[in-house]
Amino acid sequence: MSAARTLEETGLFPSLTPEERAELEARFEPVRFRAGEEIFYEAGPEEHLYVVVSGTVEVLKSVSGLRRQRLAVMEAPTLIGEMGLLTEPRAAASVLARTPVEARRIAHAEFLRLLEGGSTAAYKVVYRIGELLAERMARTNEKLSAVISDLDEARLTRDAGVFRDRLADEWF
After folding, report:
1. Whole-prediction pTM value?
2. Residue 13, helix vs strand vs coil
3. Residue 2 is assigned to a structural domain of this protein
């Protein structure tokens, strides 16, 4: 599949009118990343909202300062940098290009100017970001629930083994 050349081709913003899409297209700039290149560093500045139009990115989080845990692998089309747009502009995780990536980006300051100016297009993008974050949170909740269930099962198995061993030691 060839890379999307426009925001419309990504399908990420179906509620935008042609005029609204043109307003955003004029402000987004193309950018490319090589496979292995970091787009964001955890706790580093997150100064742009990116629409990934081709390629695959990986989201990594530092764990205990000892290693990086993969949180997600996302294929185009997708958004990255959306959390920094809505909160403090520091990356909550690192984002790495797994493959060559083509994206369109807009500086947070420019996007905030659109919002402050009452841009309907910008409001629709924020609404779409909310939808995407809710979808991602639902997937995270499912994964977390499965991990907790696995831990509970492991604890029950371990506790049963400890009980069996204590019973055998004390009764025999």
Report:
1. 0.80
2. coil
3. no
